[in-house]
């Protein structure tokens, strides 16, 4: 099994406000991360301010993307049915959001009316969400494909 070396502060561009975490890792200016996932060499994190952070594991940075109103509690990464790399986040604002990771843009906003505690993204584009007392299942579709 290949052992991966953790990022150290010296490996990443440091900016004012960056704080090293355990082992010297920099959290890409997020003060309090709530969840993290990895897809195609990109670490994706949500934080207590509702921001989506995208950090290339090979180094460098991408601008953070504001989103949820308040805490974004959970994140899951995968492929959208149209082939794009996406992240799905759930927040205390009662929404599930789907993000295009390359563009840093929101693709979908799904209101669920309850703070979202968990999200998962299946390979077929099914989004499963969890909140206190409930589970929601949504399906992402490739709008470019014509239905026959």
UniProtKB/TrEMBL annotation:
<keyword id="KW-0853">WD repeat</keyword>
<keyword id="KW-0677">Repeat</keyword>
<feature type="region of interest" description="Disordered">
    <location>
        <begin position="49"/>
        <end position="71"/>
    </location>
</feature>
<dbReference type="InterPro" id="IPR001680">
    <property type="entry name" value="WD40_rpt"/>
</dbReference>
<feature type="region of interest" description="Disordered">
    <location>
        <begin position="1"/>
        <end position="29"/>
    </location>
</feature>
<feature type="compositionally biased region" description="Basic and acidic residues">
    <location>
        <begin position="1"/>
        <end position="18"/>
    </location>
</feature>
<dbReference type="InterPro" id="IPR019775">
    <property type="entry name" value="WD40_repeat_CS"/>
</dbReference>
<protein>
    <recommendedName>
        <fullName>WD40 repeat domain-containing protein</fullName>
    </recommendedName>
</protein>
<feature type="repeat" description="WD">
    <location>
        <begin position="88"/>
        <end position="109"/>
    </location>
</feature>
<dbReference type="InterPro" id="IPR015943">
    <property type="entry name" value="WD40/YVTN_repeat-like_dom_sf"/>
</dbReference>
<dbReference type="Pfam" id="PF00400">
    <property type="entry name" value="WD40"/>
</dbReference>
């Amino acid at each position: 099994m290949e052992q991966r070396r953790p990022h150290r502060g010296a490996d990443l561009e440091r900016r004012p406000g960056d704080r090293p975490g355990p082992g010297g890792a920099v959290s890409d200016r997020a003060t309090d991360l709530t969840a993290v996932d990895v897809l195609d060499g990109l670490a994706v994190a949500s934080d207590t301010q509702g921001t989506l952070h995208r950090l290339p594991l090979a180094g460098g940075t991408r601008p953070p993307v504001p989103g949820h109103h308040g805490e974004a509690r959970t994140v899951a990464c995968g492929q959208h049915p149209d082939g794009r790399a996406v992240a799905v986040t759930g927040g205390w604002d009662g929404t599930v959001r789907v993000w295009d990771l390359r563009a840093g843009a929101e693709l979908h906003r799904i209101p669920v009316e309850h703070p979202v505690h968990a999200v998962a993204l299946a390979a077929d584009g099914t989004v499963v969400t969890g909140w206190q007392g409930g589970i929601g299942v949504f399906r992402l579709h490739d709008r470019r494909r014509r239905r026959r």
